[in-house]
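User: Hello! I'm new to structural biology and keep hearing that structure can be predicted from sequence alone. Could you demonstrate with DUF3108 domain-containing protein? Please show me the input and the output so I can see what each looks like.

Assistant: Of course. The first part below is the input, the amino acid sequence of DUF3108 domain-containing protein. The second part is the output, the predicted structure written as tokens.
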Amino acid sequence: MAAAGQAEAQAKLDARYAVTLAGIKLGEGSWVIDVGEDQFSVAASGATSGLARIFSSGRGSGESRGTIKNDQFVPARYAISIKSGKKTEDVRLKLNDGTVKDVSIVPAAPEPPDRVPVTDAHKRNVFDPMTGSLLRISGNGNLMKPEVCRQHTPIFDGRMRYDLTLAYKRMEQVKVPGYAGPALVCAIYFAPLAGHVPSRAAIKYLIDQRDMETWLVPIGGTRVMVPIRVQVPTPLGLGVMEATSFNVMPRPTRASIKMQ
């Protein structure tokens, strides 16, 4: 029974997503999450598509990896690269037990004078954005219950330190290739702490927004919850990132490999 429990805790998700704004497709991408016995990795890539390419072409990729300690994700490295037209940006973080040890942003940009300073305290007990989008639920109870939405995630993305707080809203039924079943819908509340410019309209809008949602489903065979849909109201219409496929593959344990 112990061996079976370990085997169920591991899997690999290969998902595809589409991004729309007011029903118009803007981009598409992939998300691969690999959950092992004591390690994890997340990789994502995406690009503009459809009408968005008429106005601007963009492409990005990112990854996060780390260990699993005390039934929780502990990121060690995070990297993201974005290219938009002729502009590129690379952000890299190194972390140790939740503390950011090194930050690299290329090319470096001058800081606005009214930016809230980021201190060393803001870089402790944090997740990178990719790891922070996942929920690993300890125990062995039901994952589809309102209590799972009660999450508070501190995030540092290389420039900004902010908190994302979730709260239960409702249950929904979803169906995409690879998954059909319930989704736990949680409200998302955004609270910037440092690295931001308080007077910027986008920051004020996100702080005041009360209709952002993430729809969470489990990676089959694990206690990891991931977004199958995220929606954010904007002045131009509803922005949605939604899975178009959601394929989960069991991951063999080291114990099972040795037994073979």
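User: So the tokens describe the shape?

Assistant: Right, they're a compact way of writing down the 3D structure. Reading them back into a model, for example: The first strand starts at residue 11 and ends at 21.
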